[in-house]
Amino acid sequence: MATDKIRVLIVDDIAETRENVRKLLQFETDVDVAGTARSGKEGIQLSQELDPDVVLMDINMPDIDGISATEIIRQKSPHIQVVILSVQGDPNYMRRAMLAGARDFLTKPPMGDELISAIRRAGEMAHAERAKGMQQRLGPSIPGGVPMSLGNSAAVSKGKIITVYSPKGGTGCTTIAVNLAIALNNDDTRTVLVDANLQFGDVAVFVNEQGKNTILDLTPRVDELEVELVEEILIKHEASGIHILAAPQRPEMAEKVGAEQFGKVLQFLQRMYSYVVVDTSPILTDVILSTFDISDVVVLVTTQEIPAIKNSRLFLDLLQTMGINKNRVVFTMNRFDKRISITPERVGENLKHEISAAIPLDEKIVITAVNRGVPFMIDNKAQPVGKGILSLAGAVRARLTLLEESEAEAPIKR
Ligand SMILES: Nc1ncnc2c1ncn2[C@@H]1O[C@H](COP(=O)(O)OP(=O)(O)O)[C@@H](O)[C@H]1O
Ligand SMILES: [Mg+2]
Questions:
Q1: Are residues 116 and 172 in the same domain?
Q2: pLDDT tens track for 385-402
Q3: Which of 32, 91, 270, 285 keeps 20 to 30 A from 11, CA to CA?
């Protein structure tokens, strides 16, 4: 599949633009311009006839505009990926384009590199979608997906690594990681919370336990880890019962922790705890990227804001490029406000990934909790925010069970 050329259809009412784009693409050996169309209507028709992988779509056109055409093409052929080219980077257009199912949005005239990498990303998606469609038609005998866990299936009841990630700062990644860890922790399923935001980690502050041991006390000894040593270093949070591995005290110390060392610590913790919940930063450091590789589940956090949704889309694409099965992503909406029309259902539909839990906006409870250093799952779990976290914990547990069942059927392969 990877050697297949990406077949592109150019839709624009201006001849000069069509020609310019064609010229930009002519030297790319992996891209093939399958055809050009002069209007939205013709674009829809040629999409049916030529079945391209990617459609480059203008917005303002005489008969059917590019956004409506995108919607129609995506309805008829969901594997075709549309990249919108528009004169202005108007956020309102961007939002409408996204809701219509466009994969990417570029401003005109596009830069060569930018255009080509957008086409490659979209082309990869289209090939994957086609393959999936084929697999579904061939039936379940062909094992689907590529689970990402490195783990060997022989290991006995290893704990699960649950990584909480948001590609946009301030969406509530840390709030969710801390409260989710508390929700998952009980006598049968002991839970440790690890801060992988090594520069500006604030997990310890969220539970008012700053200034104690950190991961720097473990990293020099990663090759000789012992339960007693690890227990000594972890912070024991009395009020909730969870254990915590804090980030370094100062940002300049972050670089002392390598990805390999960090991975070894996580894998050791997996032997001691049922759940290892990892908080992250939006910046994809080596430490965080390799944590995804060994995670059982990634809790992806978005809000109802377009930039957060857009970044979630990019992140889902990235996981796919990394070979990480999307079944492992538990998509979550935080700061959910039902007065805003971008509902979890719409975002889920648009990104083709259902939102499993919505945690409501509640500034009073959440901000007070952070400032007091007392997570709301300790004293406010009956409130709507607390119920949101409980439903997320339920979704995570259910997903882990499903993944275990499917791995028992089709053993892990990379
Ligand atoms: N559901 C929510 N309702 C209201 N405020 C929230 C909610 N979740 C998080 N916040 C607030 O948003 C801010 C950012 O949260 P934080 O967890 O630090 O985000 P991140 O780790 O993604 O940067 C904090 O002030 C936090 O109190
Ligand atoms: Mg954070």
A1: no
A2: 999 999 999 999 999 999
A3: 91
Q: Is 361 in the pocket of ligand 1 (CB under 6 A)?
A: yes
Q: Is 74 in the pocket of ligand 1 (CB under 6 A)?
A: no
Atom of ligand 1 nearest to the CA of 336: 1
Residues 236 and 378 in one domain: yes
Domain count, the chain: 2
**Rounded distance between C-alpha atoms, residue 407 and residue 149, angstroms:** 10
User: Which ligand 1 atom is at minimum distance from the Cα of 202?
Assistant: 18
Contacts 24+ apart (CB under 8 A), 251-260: 251/199, 251/200, 253/198, 253/216, 254/198, 254/199, 256/216, 256/219, 257/198, 257/215, 257/216, 257/219, 257/287, 258/219, 258/286, 258/287, 259/285, 259/286, 259/287, 259/289, 259/290, 260/290
Same domain, 81 and 126: yes
Q: Cβ–Cβ contacts within 10 Å for residue 408, how many?
A: 9
77: its two tokens:
């052929």
- Rounded mean pLDDT of the chain? 90
Q: Which two tokens stand for residue 72?
A: 């129609």
- As a whole number of angstroms, the distance between CA 211 and CA 204 comes to 8
Q: Which domain holds residue 56?
A: 6-138
Q: Strand pairing partners for 360?
A: 336
Question: 371 CB under 6 A from ligand 1?
Answer: no
Q: What share of the chain is helix, strand, coil (3-state, %, to 5)?
A: 50, 15, 35
Question: Peptide bond preceding 109: is omega within 30 degrees of 0, i.e. cis?
Answer: yes
| pTM score of the predicted model | 0.67
Phi then psi for residue 13, to 5 deg, are: -80, -15
- Say if 134 falls within a structural domain: yes
Residue 209 pLDDT: 96
